[in-house]
Sequence to fold (238 residues):
Amino acid sequence: MTDGLNRKLDEQIRYYRVRAPEYDAWADRRGPYDRGAQNAGWFAEKQRLVAALHDFGPTGHVLEIAGGTGQWTERLVRYATSLTVIDAAKEPLEQSRHRLAADAPRIEYCCADIFAWTPPRQYDVVFFSYWLSHVPPERFETFWERVAACLAPKGRIFVIDNIATEQDNLLDPETPGDDGVSVLRRAPDGNVYRIWKVLWRPDELRDALADLGWSVAVYGTGTYFLWAEGARSRRTGS
Fold:
């Protein structure tokens, strides 16, 4: 990984560290669109994600990558025998600890970079939400190799993210970067941060993962989200 890419990753982590105190209020109370009836559509599509996760059933030993403040952690823990949550930013993890204090015995938190982290075990399910779009294109294949290394032989994945649509401007208030795969966002501290925002269409993500040896079904909720579920169809290097 180049020094430039490292600096960009560090900047993305700093953004989410700074944003941690207000993230839950943003997501829970008004969503990202504060535009009257349009908000209702955002929340309705989010409920489709909740229903899809329930149907998937993330049982057994579960790993959540980029768990953030715990909005999906609190759903995963209802199904999991044990839950490991990793995030590179410590402030969101602390909020998650507070949110889920009653479930602490079944949750292990780890503040670490997924690209450098060595999993202590293999997992029945690997889950991540709104993280794939923040993976640099240069690290896409490497990231999925990391996911494969975390999975038990019959392990499954479940992924949630924003979807690429003709209404991409409805996502978070932001300015497109000059590279086509990043955006500029102003954080609560007043500073502007560059983060990756690589949005996928369902068929494009399905095909990209098939090329890497995954058998994954990818669905769109409509305007705002996609989810994917599946497993390895062949081992890396086969």
